[in-house]
Every structure is written in structure tokens, then in C-alpha cells.
Amino acid sequence: MTIAELFQSAVGANRLSDSPELDCQLLLCFVLGVDSSYLKTWPERQVSDDQSTQFNRLLQRRLDGEPVAYLIGSQGFWSLDLKVSPATLIPRPETELLVEVALDLALPEQASVLDLGTGTGAIALALATERSRWEICAVDLQQQAVDLAERNRQRYQLDNVRLFASNWFAAIPAQRFDLIVSNPPYIEANDPHLSQGDLRFEPASALVSGDDGLGDLRLVCTQSVDYLNRGGWLLLEHGFDQGAAVRELLDQAGFASVETRRDLNGLERLTLACRSD
Length: 277
Ligand code: GLN
What we know:
Bound molecules: glutamine
Helix content: 25-40%
CATH architecture of the largest domain: 3-Layer(aba) Sandwich
Strand content: 15-25%
Strand order of the largest sheet: 5-4-3-6-7-9-8
CATH class of the largest domain: Alpha Beta
Number of domains: 2
């Protein structure tokens, strides 16, 4: 079979997801060990029986709902190709907004930054590639996530990021940061989306936060004040319907300049605030 034939039969026969072409492309590139331009340049190249068997097995798992990122073990985020595992959330494109907003803030040249609940390391590593003089600390409750993020860090030789395990602020030294960022778990325990799509395969510890989804956001809003320099910023990703609640939490914690930004879908996705006093 040729690349083109295998690709066509896979895309045509299956309703994988709302992006069947992209899914098939990513799986085929992974199996063949090539990039997508290779598929387009060499459609008439033969695929071995082993490769086509491996591809069809992955395709079946995709049909059973497994996220492509877990099947191929990686996910693009910002300019990086990050290793992912079922121990971590798969980085989402929406979260790139948080990186953009962080890069736009007026911060010191050598800003000290804390990323809480780093998962694959996505936010911390994206910031580190853009700002080599920032000193970034990134933590996660799960040691497996810390190990994975460390592999991602090493791959890009980002020496300005330090990773370790911490339950939110529990293992953070008494230090003040210029910027704290977090994409914490924020889904309600009984949200029906948890039994749909990719979320079924992701760790609940990275998704769910108490009955109202605000448990961890509440903790981070309350405790961040004690870890920020005066003039330092807190940036939090949250659910599309949590903007008002997060703004209120930040107001109550004494933050100033509280402001919510919308993602590309027009949904309230992150809120930022400044420690002014
Ligand atoms: N943005 C993810 C989703 O709703 C959830 C991520 C999170 O809880 N931090 O699919």
C-alpha cells in the first residue's frame, strides 16, 4: 500500500473526530517517523505491512476515543513539541493566551516567575523560550508530571527553569515572585463533559476541583498575595463561566487591576490581577 492509499482509506472509512484528516496525518507521521511535508511530497511511497498494521491499531484506539496526543506521546504547544503522558493534562491551544498575556506584561528583565501545576511544563517552558533571563520555578503535585516536564525542559535546554514537586505553595521557599501563572484544575466534579471526548482519558487530578470547580482557584487567589512582589502579577486560566467568580476572589484577596481576557472562541478564559499594596 502507498502512503496516499493508506491515508485515504483511513480518513474515508472513519469518523474519528471533528478533525479526521489531522488525526490521521499525525498518526501516520508518528508511525513512519516523518513530518507532514513528507506525506505530501511522497504520496506514492510504499508503507510496509508492519507500519500499516501499527497505524491501523492506533487508528482503532483513536476510534475508541483515546486522544491523539496520548497515542503519539506528544503535543505541540507554542513553539515546542512537548512529551505528554496520561499522568498529565494535554496542553490546550487556549492556554497559549496565558503565555501571550504574560509576555505582554511590564516585568523586570530578570523577572522571577512561578508556574503552579505545570503538568507537561507547557506554560513555564514556553515563557522560558521567549525570556531567557527570567528565572522560572515550576511545580506540580504529581512527581510523574515533574519528571515529564523535566524531560521536556532538557530537550530544549531551558536552563532558566527549575522543576520540583509541590502541592501548590506547600514546598515553595519563602520567596516573592514578579509573576505567578497557573492553569489549575477547574472543572466541577459532576460536569457531564468529563465523560466525553479527550477528558475521559486525562487524569481527574488535573481537571476536577471540588464540587464547584473553584477549589484550587480559590486557594491560589488567596495565597498568591503572600508570594508576589509589590507590582507583581497573577494570571489564572479558568472555565468560560468562571470569570465573575475569579474576579470576585481576586478582589476579595486585595488585588488591583483585575481584568478578564477572552480566548479565540470569544470565551472568558483567563483573569489577571496585580498586587498593588
Ligand atoms: N481547558 C480544559 C478543558 O475544559 C480543562 C483544563 C483545566 O481544568 N485546567 O477541557
